[in-house]
Every structure is written in C-alpha cells, then in structure tokens.
Amino acid sequence: MLKKLTEEKLNEVLETGIREFAERGLQQTSMNAVATQAGISVGVLYKYYENKDTFFLACVRRCTEELEQFLHQLCAEEHKPLQYAEALIGAVQQFSRQHRDYIRLYHEVTHTGNPVHAAALAQQIEGVSSKLYTDIIQRAQQSGDVRSDLDPGLFAFFFDNLLMMMQFSYCCPYYQERFRLYAGGDILDNTDFVTAQLLKFMESAFTLEQADIPHRSPKGEIV
Amino acid sequence: MLKKLTEEKLNEVLETGIREFAERGLQQTSMNAVATQAGISVGVLYKYYENKDTFFLACVRRCTEELEQFLHQLCAEEHKPLQYAEALIGAVQQFSRQHRDYIRLYHEVTHTGNPVHAAALAQQIEGVSSKLYTDIIQRAQQSGDVRSDLDPGLFAFFFDNLLMMMQFSYCCPYYQERFRLYAGGDILDNTDFVTAQLLKFMESAFTLEQADIPHRSPKGEIV
Amino acid sequence: MLKKLTEEKLNEVLETGIREFAERGLQQTSMNAVATQAGISVGVLYKYYENKDTFFLACVRRCTEELEQFLHQLCAEEHKPLQYAEALIGAVQQFSRQHRDYIRLYHEVTHTGNPVHAAALAQQIEGVSSKLYTDIIQRAQQSGDVRSDLDPGLFAFFFDNLLMMMQFSYCCPYYQERFRLYAGGDILDNTDFVTAQLLKFMESAFTLEQADIPHRSPKGEIV
Amino acid sequence: MLKKLTEEKLNEVLETGIREFAERGLQQTSMNAVATQAGISVGVLYKYYENKDTFFLACVRRCTEELEQFLHQLCAEEHKPLQYAEALIGAVQQFSRQHRDYIRLYHEVTHTGNPVHAAALAQQIEGVSSKLYTDIIQRAQQSGDVRSDLDPGLFAFFFDNLLMMMQFSYCCPYYQERFRLYAGGDILDNTDFVTAQLLKFMESAFTLEQADIPHRSPKGEIV
DNA sequence: AATGAATGAGAATTCATTCAT
DNA sequence: TATGAATGAATTCTCATTCAT
Q: Which CATH architecture is the domain C60-203 placed in?
C-alpha cells in the first residue's frame, strides 16, 4: 500500500486541490476529500503541507506561476500598446477557457478577509503584472502611444480591472450570469466579438467633443 | 419575554446579518452569533428565515434595494454620458465609504458556486442596473454622444466592470491591497484624483493614429 | 430528544468526567466518550465547558471542594496535634475508600507539565490545606505540643506528604503495588494497623540517645 | 547511510527518550520526534523496541539502573539509622538536581493505569530499595537504634514516601509549586535547611507526654 | 409566538506503526 | 539492515438546525 509519492502524484494532488478549492471555496473544501480524490491519505497531505491554508497557498502559487509564465511569454515581444492589449485580451480568454479553475481559485483568493494575508497574497499575485503593465504604459507614454496625462499606475490598474473582470466573467458562475445579462445568453462563445468590442471601449469609451480632447494628439497636428 | 418582533427589530437583525456576512463571509458567519448580536433567539431567526442561505439572501436583497434606490436617484436626472459617468463614479465612491459592508456582501455574493442560485442572484442584483446602463448608452448613441459601433450591452458591461472593481477596491481587503500596489499606498484617500483619471481612461484609453480609427465614424464622414 | 439538562444530569456529567479522567488520565480521555457515557451529546458538553482543559478543571474543582469540606469538618473541632493527626489519617483512609476517583484525579493533576497551570492548580488545591496545617502546627508549637525548633511550614509539608502518599497508596495502581511490596499483600485492608503505625512513625521515627533530645521536653524537666 | 547502531547511539536514543518522556509524558511524546532528535529513523526505533510502551519501559529501566547504583553505593557503608537517613536525604537532593528527568520519568511511571503493568513496574523499580530499607531498619531494630514496635516494612514505606515526595518536590512542576506554597518561594534552593528539618521531623514529629510513650524504650528501663 | 438548550454530523489535524525501497 | 514516506483511525471542537418549554 505504501507507494512513494511521485512528482506526478504530487502534481495530481495540487490539481485536485485547485479543482476542489475552485469548486467549493476555501472553507467548504475538505482536506480529507482532497486526499481521497487524489488517491492519497490525509497523512501525506499534511506531510507535504503544514495545514489547509498552506495547501491552499500552494495551489494558488501553482496557478499564479502558470499565469505569470503565460504573461511573460506574451509580453516578451515588442508591441504597440493596442496590440499588447489585443494580445492580452485574447490570451486571457484562452487562459480562461483552458484553466477555468485557476481563475476561480484566483477569485477565491480575493475573499481573503485578513488584511495581512491579503497584502501578502496581493503582492505575490499582482506584484509582477502590476509592474509589467505599468512599465509598458510608461514606455508607451514616452513614445507617444498613450496620452501622457494619465498616471501610468492607475492606467494599468483600470486596464487590469477590465481584464480581471473578463476572466471572472468567463469562469465564475455569478459573473457568467451577469455577463449574459448584459450581453446576451450566447456571449460566452463570441470571444472574438468581445475582444473587438473591449478594444474599442478602451480606445475611446466616449465620443468626445473636439474641444474636450486637445490632449488626444500628443503631436498636436490634429487639433 | 414574549415580544413581537417589531419592524425595527427586523431591521436590526438584517443589519447585523449584513455586518457579519460582510465581515466573515457566508460560511464563517454563525447564525447563533447573528441572533445573539441582534438580541433575539435563534428560534425566531429560523422562524423568519428558513435557513442560513435564505437569511443571507434577505440580507443581500436589503443591500441591493438600497443600492438601487441610490442608483435611481442618480439616473433620474438627464445628463450627457460623461457627466453620468462622473456622477456615477463619485456616487460609487461615496457609497463605498458609507456602506462598506454592502459592497463586501455584494462581493460575497459573487462567490456563489451553484449556477442556479448565481443566475437568480445576478438577475436580482444586476437586472436593474444592466438595463439602466444599457438604455442610457443606447440613448447616448442615438444622440451621437457615444460611438455607435459599440454594442450598448457590452459597453454597459465594461463600464459597470470598472465601477464594480472600483467598489471592491475601496472596500475589500484583497482589492484594497491590489489598489495600493498599482497606484500607491495613499490612493484610497485620493478619491478625486481617481475619479479624474478614470474619466480620462474612459474617454480614450489609448491614443490612436488617424489610420487606426477609420471605424470611429460609423457613418464615415469624419475620416 | 431535546431534554433540558437537569442539575442532576450535570452532576452525572461531572462524575463521568471524574471517573474517566481518573481511569485514563487527561490525554487518554475522549470528550466524545465522556458525553456518550453521561448520556448527552458532545455539543452540550462544549456548551457547558469551553474545552477539554476547562472540563478537566471543573472535575478537579468538584473533587477539591468535596475534599475541603471533608477537611474543614474535621479541623473544626479542637484537638491535640496527635489527635488531629489520628483523625486526619483515618479521614484520609475513609475518603480514599469512598472517593477513589477523586484521589486518582488529584494524582492526575500532579502531572501538569506547564508551570503556570501547575502554580494555579497547586494554589487552588493545596492553598487551603497548607494554611490550615501550618496554623494548627504553629498553635501547637505555642502551646508546647510540638517541638518549636521545626519550621511550621515544612512540618506541615512533611506531614501532608505522608498523607498524600497514603491517599495515592490506597487509590492509584502503581502506588498500591508499591504499598503491597513494602508492607505485604493484604496491607490495603489493614487500615487500623496502618493508622497506628503511621502515628508511631510520626511520634518518633528514630530512637534517640538522651543527649540528642534536650529539646524534646520544652519544659526541661525530663532531661 | 547504513550504519550499525553503536552502543553509543543506543545510549543517545535512550537519553532522548528519557528527556522527551520526562518533558512531555508518555502520551504526548512522539516516537517520530524521538527518532529525529536522536538522529535515527523511526524504523530502527521500532526495530529495537516493539512499540512505544516497550521503549518507554526501556527508558525507565535505564533510569532505575542508575538510581539503584546510586543507592547501592550509599548503602554499602555501615551507618547508624539517622546517619543513613541524612545521607539518603542528601543523596536524593543531589540526584534530583543532577537527574531531574529521571525523577520526572519515575513520576510518569506512577501514572500507569493498568494494574498488571503497574505491578511489574513497581516490582522492578521499588523491589530493590524496599528490601534494602526494610533490612536496614530490621537490623537497626535489633541493635536498638530504632524502636521495635514499628513494622519494619511500614517504617521503610513511610520513610521512602518522604524521600519520594522530596524528589518530586524538587523536580516536577506541580510538586515544586506545592513545595513553595508550604515552605516559601526560595525553599528549592535551601537544601541544607530542608535536610535538617526533615531529619528533625523524622526524629520526633510530635512532642509526647511521658505517659504516652511507655513503648519508647524497648528494653523497658526508662518507664 | 419566542426561547435557547440540545443535537450530532462533519472538519482539521495528529501520530503510532508499517513496509517498499 | 536502515530509511522515512505513507497510512488512517482517532480526537477535538463547531455550528446549522430542531423542538420542548
């Protein structure tokens, strides 16, 4: 009966954890259930992870690693901001389809009530992408591709907010329903349409009077 | 000892529930604790609410009623879209400050795992605002204040996404930390700055080359 | 099924706890087992006692109360020291026979590893008797019934040590065996003999040369 | 990795066991922890000792061996009873200081609930000393150094009770507190005072009237 | 109608012991 | 022979819900 846990098995344990936590949430997930489903005993689970929280965090880290890798690959290539945005939106949609549970787990993390834990988690999860986005935007502002009267951090924040909501809207039951409510019952399948629309929204949510947008052209010719 | 539960008392019960659910979440909140804090017995709590879920939903409804009222007041006045947006952003910030627990409770709702419940909740909570926003946008498109090549539902969706994230970012621990990470430690107090920036972001996230925006005019005159 | 716990029932719970703790010790006693044996649910047990330790302490207190009462009755009457001693020895033997579990529980208390808890328990359990004994001895010294070159506290301590060991020797398996080993297999039943012998031991364990005992007579006549 | 367990290693294992059992007690001590601390694997621990109880007994035996040796050295020399007593009290105090864990382990043994085990243990631990003491006393009675109207076994028993309590009072948390309660906060350091007082207590705990002690002289001259 | 004590299933965690390597 | 990972029964404690008073 005693079979050493292969790396493969440990992977399975993590995937089981991710699945269960994504499905039921932190509280409702039972360590015994995870162990049983992963085909191991509770004992080993606790051998590898001090307690439920630790195990949860391990599952989260696994997800964020994957996500970061995904992100890095994407941001490695040089792009114009809008191309970045398009690529990111597409990537987020793809990731959401392939790793629904990762997104759900991420959503579960946002429920962390304890501010100290929340700070650590936010740092761990958002640290990389927040810097990445902010940098890209700063560069784009220097090259004149993004209006410079916007704080790069806040710009990145709003931008990520839209991506985040997109992820949740593809993966989490409540957000899915909300998505359908706003955009119709089959919206979840029209990914290209959504991408196109979101891009347009970002370009210019509101039509502005000429007078309102002297800043629009950093070079000044148009206005 | 036998006192009929006055409306006032029922109010107190709901407020207690909202506070507890907002603070601890659905699972971690104890019905006994709610009853004790509200100064009633568990028995009556179960007399009025079939079970914990039912009670939770009642608390949620109480919050959404408040929220809707708030929204309706705001949308009653006729405005240009950007003015609407500005008013809404301000309102959201104010509401977040005044009713942190309502927002937290709303956030708690988004964790509903059961799709059926999720659908009912989304309908209940988002039904009004989604219609409201979509209508406003449609009207704005007809009057030419909003580019008409955007789907009004999706536009409303993206718009509400930004507002929603703003609420959470002001009220929920994890999102607060994330907010600070993106925009600096004191961002939570600079509400005016955030409002101004978000408005700009909505106006036009990205500067566009002329060539990039032939679609801007659906009628083609401008370009 | 829901029957209110009468005072009688609560008594039974305590007695069950005392029995189980006495039988198995603190660690080995299961709260579920106590509840089952007392005919209640674990829930109530935890309603009345915060946790296992608290329940254990309640059981201990119950025992010490009984013991103190027993002691007070005895010490109320004025006696000569040796009469006190005789009365106490007899009382201890009687108490041991009637309340074996109380003594065993007392013995269990002596295993408290945590010095802080130990201090509190010792204070609670020994506080009264230590003062009582010391006072009696001091008075006896003033009246010349006890040699005055002995520290009253230490005298009381040695005296209580002998009583304590007697209790354990009548009640706790290991000490019982040890008792038999020293004094024969049937010693546990010869209580009168033991009393007489212990009294003699206290009177004068060792025969002394005349020269060694000038202090024996506080009045000086004999020597 | 495969190294034969040297005698030295086995010693270390036993010492670790003694330390842990003394510190935490039988139940609370973990075999895994002992193995880890001793620098071996649980596997070997179970190779050498069938189970936890067996290992515990081995640790106990190790302690009693040491204790017996100590005792034998002391009793080898011929003495008058009071000199023996004084020597023993001093020895016990010294042993308590040097081998606190041995005494604690001994105390742990007294908790054995199972009468069969208790009998075996008592026999093993007390067998030698009970005989030794009883013999010495019998001889002393024959030589007139101890009053002959005392049962030698019981005398030895009472005497050992006092020594035993002294050991515990120097080594075990609860008994230490009790000691301080009776004799003041710094009593644990005043070993000489304690020795002197205990000797006096043994000499003659209570002052007796002439009439009360006709038996004092076994030869009958005095009375 | 109101009370709140009682119920008991369920969840996290521990650790003596086994046995494949 | 030594290792130490794996097992899983057992234990403490919680809390939604019931129902006698």
A: Orthogonal Bundle (1.10)
B contact residues 76-105, partner A, Cβ 8 Å cutoff: 81-82, 85
Task: Provide the token pair at A180.
Answer: 């359908």
Decide if B206 and A118 are in contact by the 8 Å CB cutoff. Answer: no
Count CB atoms within 10 A of the CB of residue C132.
17
What percent of chain A stands above pLDDT 70?
89
Residues of D in contact with C217 (CB under 8 A): 207
User: Which pTM value belongs to this model?
Assistant: 0.87
Residue of C nearest to D198 (CA): C158
Residue A164: which residues within 8 A CB-CB, separation 6 or more? B165
Q: Return the pLDDT at C37.
A: 94
C-facing residues of D in 150-169 (CB < 8 A) are: 150-151, 153-162, 164-166, 168-169
Q: Could you give phi then psi for residue A114, rounded to 5 degrees?
A: -70, 115
Contact assignment for C176 to D118 by CB distance below 8 Å: yes
- Whether the pLDDT of residue C223 is over 60: the answer is no
pLDDT at position C2: 53
Question: In the prediction, which pLDDT does A3 show?
Answer: 60
Terminal CA-CA length for chain B: 78
Determine the CATH number of domain D59-202: 1.10.357
- The confidence score (pLDDT) of residue B147 equals 81
The answer to whether D28 CB is within 7 Å of strand E is yes
Q: Per CATH, is A59-203 categorized as 1.10.357?
A: yes
For chain D, give every domain's residue range.
Answer: 59-202
